[in-house]
């Protein structure tokens, strides 16, 4: 169950930070899209492991048999009000752009909504 939720977010990330927002994200984050910041296996492996941890802990938070609407709503709330809001605080102090916050915060809001969808459907 946690693995399926993590995989959903991993696939979303591939679309979100790939064809949808790669160029804008790289520009706003100051990242060269043609120069990797490490070994791809370590980056993608670490990202999947962290997605798995987040999905597993969110599953514990939701409980053993969450109603679908509650699970998705809780995912949206967690992504937007905990993760994106926390990023927003950091981005304000770091002088990061609103556009970068919208890209990253939007991803994490959808990530947790997907976790809720998968976990709500699983039961």
UniProtKB/TrEMBL annotation:
Family annotation (Pfam families): DUF1761
Parts of the chain that traverse the membrane = 42-62, 69-93, 105-122
Task: Give the UniProt keywords, A-Z.
Answer: Membrane, Transmembrane, Transmembrane helix
Species of provenance: Pseudoxanthomonas daejeonensis
Looking at the record's lineage, which domain of life comes first? Bacteria
The protein's name is DUF1761 domain-containing protein
């Amino acid at each position: 169950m946690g693995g399926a939720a993590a995989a959903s977010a991993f696939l979303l990330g591939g679309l979100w930070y790939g064809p949808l927002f790669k160029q804008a994200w790289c520009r706003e984050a100051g990242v060269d899209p043609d120069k990797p910041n490490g070994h791809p296996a370590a980056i993608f492996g670490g990202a999947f492991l962290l997605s798995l941890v987040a999905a597993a802990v969110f599953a514990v938070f939701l409980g053993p048999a969450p109603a679908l609407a509650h699970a998705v709503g809780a995912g949206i709330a967690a992504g937007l009000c905990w993760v994106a809001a926390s990023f927003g605080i950091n981005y304000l102090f770091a002088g990061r752009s609103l556009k970068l916050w919208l890209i990253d915060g939007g991803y994490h809001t959808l990530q947790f909504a997907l976790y809720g969808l998968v976990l709500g459907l699983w039961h």
